[in-house]
From TrEMBL:
Residues 9-62 form the HTH cro/C1-type domain. This is Helix-turn-helix domain protein. CDD domains: HTH_XRE. It holds the Pfam family HTH_26. InterPro entries: Cro/C1-type_HTH, Lambda_DNA-bd_dom_sf. The lineage of its organism: Bacteria, Bacillati, Bacillota, Clostridia, Eubacteriales. Transmembrane segments: none annotated.
Length: 71
């Protein structure tokens, strides 16, 4: 079964040894707000890019057509 985005973020943060509270500070939000988003699995693409940058990685969110075109 695939992971939710919230689960993926928690795994990534753990691997980078960054607490959820620290991550919230790094992306300019409150611990409560980030925890709620993780629980609801409710992130904009902009937020996912901010999280990736804060954790030293890259986020790529695309829909890919059969011919390889990305949207």
């Amino acid at each position: 079964m695939p992971f939710t985005m919230g689960e993926k973020i928690r795994i990534l943060a753990k691997r980078k040894k960054v607490s959820i509270s620290e991550l919230a500070t790094l992306i300019g939000t409150t611990n409560q707000n980030l925890s709620n988003k993780l629980t609801r699995d409710n992130f904009s693409e902009k937020e996912l890019k901010q999280i990736a940058e804060a954790l030293g990685c890259k986020f790529e969110g695309f829909f890919i057509f059969d011919d390889g075109e990305r949207v």
